[in-house]
Amino acid sequence: MSGASSFGGLLRFRTAVPRMAVGVAALLGAMSFLGAWWLIVALHVVAPIFLPSPATVARAFWTMCADGVAMPNALISISRVWSAFLLSAIIAVPLGILMSGYRIIGAFLEPLIDFIRYLPVPALVPLAIIWFGVGEETKIFLLWLGTFFQLVLMVAADMKRVPGEYFETAYTLGAKPRQTLGTVALPAMLPQLMDSMRISLGWCWTYVIIAEIVASDSGLGFVIWTARRFMKTDQVMAGVIMIGLIGLLTDQCLRLLHRFLFRYQSS
Q1: Per the annotation, which location comes first and is thus the protein's main one (predicted)?
Q2: What pLDDT is stored for residue 14 in this prediction?
Q3: pTM given for the model
Q4: What DSSP character marks residue 27?
């Protein structure tokens, strides 16, 4: 009876869950996914050429690593994604703060940013090639395009969430409007800002395939696209899984950094 009640406690809305239970749940989720995948292949629901088994994909993954295909191309993709993401953050963070802090700037820029962020990145590939050619600049631009306009609005929203009472208290204590940016706004919005940047980094990875099929000869997107042309589905899935693993590892590292920097938020 106590076991059933303790399990029920884990399912209570917004209740704290022990870390061990979180780890077990994550492991069970992964095993359930792999089990369902294996079962679909074993029952021949989908032909192996379209959905190879987990073991086949694992062998392709190992072969790509052993042949020196996976790691060098993964490093190139990581370099491109981080270059585009950091460029986006350098521009988006101050611009988002200005848009939220000064309403007239927000009114001037927000309609344009809203318009551009709804444009599909693949549709802009021809323009990117016309503007930048087929070199590295085009790939960075496409990754930046898929990240910047989302991030700047998230930064503006993070700034808006800072309670107005914080600024009023600072003004009462003699602070000037510009001083409140460094002493009030940034410290208050920093935890949420870091989460917004972590989420936007994930978006940047979703555009890596699009960016790396533009006259490219390197990167995980190029590897996946080349394997697709020869119907090597196991290598396609191995490349996709590699992107997912890189993203998962990066996300978990950023979560740990967030937890370390803002320990006062955990309770």
Answers
A1: membrane
A2: 67
A3: 0.85
A4: H
